[in-house]
Amino acid sequence: MYRVWMMTLTALALVFLSVWSGNAATLSGVVTDTGGKPISGAFVSAKQQIRKMTVSVVSGVDGRYQLPNLFTETYTVKAAKIGFTTSSGDMTVNEKGGARNFTLAATEDVADQLAGNMWLAALPEGDMKARFITGCTVCHEGGSKIVRGPRDQDDWEAVIQMMRESVDIYRVIPDFDNEELAAWLVAHKFGVQPANIPVPDPGEDATAGVVITEYDVGDAASWAHDMTIDPNTGAAWVGDYVKDDLIRIEPRTGAQTIYKMPVKGGGMHTLHFDRAGYLWITLQLTDMVARFDPKDGTFRLYGGFQKGSLVHSFAYDEYGLVQFDNDGRMWMTEFGTNALVALDPDSGNLTEHPLPGDGGHPYGIAMDSQGRVWYTKYGDNILGVLDPKTGQVTELTMPRANSGPHRIDVDLDDRLWIPNSGTGTLARYDIKQGTFKEYPLPDPDTFPYAVRYDGASETVWIDGNGANALYRFDPKSETFESYRIPSSLAYGRMIAFDYNTGDVWTALSSYPNKHAGRDYGIIVRLEGVRPPAQ
Hints:
Blueprint: E1 3-8, E2 13-14, E3 25-33, E4 43-48, E5 53-58, E6 64-70, E7 74-80, E8 87-92, E9 98-99, E10 102-104, H1 116-121, H2 127-136, H3 145-148, H4 153-166, H5 178-187, E11 211-217, E12 224-229, E13 236-240, E14 245-249, E15 256-260, E16 268-273, E17 279-283, E18 288-293, E19 298-303, E20 311-314, E21 330-334, E22 339-343, E23 350-354, E24 362-367, E25 373-377, E26 382-387, E27 392-397, E28 409-410, E29 415-420, E30 425-430, E31 435-440, E32 451-454, E33 459-464, E34 469-474, E35 479-484, E36 492-497, E37 504-508, E38 521-527
Parallel strand pairs: 3-9, 3-10
Antiparallel strand pairs: 1-19, 2-15, 3-6, 4-5, 4-7, 5-11, 7-8, 11-38, 12-13, 13-14, 14-15, 16-17, 17-18, 18-19, 20-21, 21-22, 22-23, 24-25, 25-26, 26-27, 28-29, 29-30, 30-31, 32-33, 33-34, 34-35, 36-37, 37-38
Helix pairs in contact: 4-5
């Protein structure tokens, strides 16, 4: 069964900015407290409103910072750190650069500064906590004031029921009793500012020396879900799930080109390039997949998926490119219909493989060196594998209950890397040995969404949702490096690499945007990432 459409669209909107300066200037200074003592680990940011770009670094142990490669334009500059008041103001950077010192006053009113995992850490360990994290951090995180409350019993029951109904199409909230969960949240004072929670210092971890650029995309009604990097041009691409906008971002200038999808209400979810230079996109809400050619702006639409399939993720290789099997087919998960599906991009033919279980929801997907297709079922706590040659499917229950296995990847040694949202761990499954091993993430009570294996450095990246972080894991030394993100409530989705520059990218995709205190989504680029430890 197949349906294929070809359409050509031109860019509907291009963000032209005023006079572009080729000059690169540096803003520098020092961050101190009211007693003149240097503050390490303060994020210093310069936001250019027209470009929708914010450049950030962290202050070092001596309180000093340098913001490089700025345009000679007017910026809103800011210094912020948990436990201190924020200092901000406008200034113009000229050809000689600029200087700005910041003085931050200590404060105990830090509720709105705390990361989501700090609120979750105040809850007692156990099955209920894992179920709460697995079910209630699918769209946004517990650090949001809108989410955390505090609330009384009746209000919590109403909120839990509202969330069940609003995400009914995805059916990801565990089958716990609303009254029981509400009583548990009230009893443990969720939403009341926690005490004695450790606060990391970004000036003393791998964030030091990294330049972080954030690009605002969309508006209050948007949901910029996944992003990817064009391996040929280095441009960033992101899909707006709600507004059907495919957005191209020029990294240096911030210029955004918007291509309108040829179908309405498509639900753009996952984006990956292939080796031929095409961009592939899952369109969840119309049961389609799109192929976009950045060279001429043409879309090819593939239909024929089951109604309500909610086509979710592509299997991709060690460089993040869509992976094809020996028959030239690409593989995807059908979250809504409990199936894996293979698509022949030339003919449009689909081959669907129903999976065991009643109402299971396959999520992440990866293909090993033998052509076997692995998948996770997030809410069902399952890791499964399909052998396309025989049609045999095997499903394994994750070693720990309520692990919440999310979007997976496989390395060149046939080891699967699995982000466990419910337990805040990175799991490794050795396909050859049939063994699991778990690694706790650097910050407690994070709820990772995705991992990416980096074929160039042979390291694994994972998003530390709840902790406003990305982590890099070295399988050889079994150690983590932490990279902090300046924006609070940084709900990261898929991770992407620019192999020409070494930059690491992700999308901050809380839904809706207001839950993160923003009227837009954010795409993040990390420059100057340290080479992996040897």
